[in-house]
Amino acid sequence: MPLITHLDGARAPWLPGYRVKIVDGNCLEASERRLKALREVQGGALPGKSLVVYEPAQGLVTDVFPCEDGHAQERSLFGAVLETVQANDLWIQDRNFCTCAFLGEIDRRGAGFITRQHEGLRFESVNVLRSVGRIETGHVAEQRVQVRDAQGGMHLFRRIQIKLDQATRDGDRVLYLLTKLPLRKASAKRVARLYRKRWTLETAFQHLEAYFHSEINTLGYPKAALFGFCLALVAYNMLAVVTAALRSVHGAQIIDQELSLYYVATDIAQTYHGMMIAIPEDEWRVFSRMRPVEMVATLKELAQKVSLKAYRKSPRGPKKPQPKREGHTTSSHVSTAKILRNRKVNAATA
Prior knowledge:
This protein is of the alpha+beta class. It has a domain at 1-94 and 198-313 and 333-341. It has helices at 2-7, 78-82, 100-108, 188-196, 199-212, 222-250, 252-258, 261-278, 285-288, 292-304, 336-349, and strands at residues 19-27, 44-46, 49-55, 60-67, 89-93, 112-116, 124-125, 130-135, 138-148, 154-164, 174-179, 333-335. Strands 1, 3, 4, 5, 6, 7, 8, 9, 10 and 11 form a ten-stranded mixed sheet that branches. A two-stranded parallel sheet has the order 2-12. Helix 5 (199-212) runs parallel beside helix 8 and helix 6 crosses helix 10 (292-304). It is globular. It starts with a helix and ends with a helix. The mean pLDDT is 87.
């Protein structure tokens, strides 16, 4: 983050005065059954999951909360997340994070949030829904509601209704959002638009898997699988510094709209081994001794020499609607951590 700051390579803030953080869960895909304890298991072996925090202004993953138990509820990790909440944060999350305890603690710490309302959340209406107009995806209305936490404290939130012109992939035509942002900071329309941009983190997960192979399904042990995923997060942050340097030299609009991260990551992967062979290890140590200002000057000098033509996105046509599939398949999964734990217990008692 200091390098991106010195580069002046951050994107425009989503909401001035707030540090926007998007939090979402990531469940690692089922691993191969290389472990002896997994060879007779029928379901897919889940090596773990995590909650990941992404800051879109810098394009950085700034926190990760790993859990070895692939069957654990994401809500069991909320306590660790709440310890990091600071005043003037703006947390954007899906409805799984919509609990009285989680939202109430964010409010108590002086931070803001935008979350999709979970149908199980209890609230009391302070006034009726009032229409405020339209956005690109539908009609918007809002009201004020009260939510009571476990300690009996009352929290006053804004509840925003969005009647969608087109249903979501889950078939929902009406969405409800809750926010603590004051009206003078963000209108209901702006809150709805900010929530729409939550997919930025989902795109980051897709990039991690496609470009950095973040989920190595040969890693069966939970600690190993989670460690591999976290190393991919570090690589993603390194790429964020590279794109910030390019943004500072070539302009934010060109880099954000035309640069293909796929081509950049592929070029790095193809060139890396040759560079490590051709350039002795001692030659790289000069970078570890650089102060941030020196590193920024070097990054800018290198960015000026990059030919963007080789890394431009390939334009694609509009997406076609997916045909409705008949029927569905279900697959069971098991938690690798639980199986290994039970195996240790059985071995100790045998």
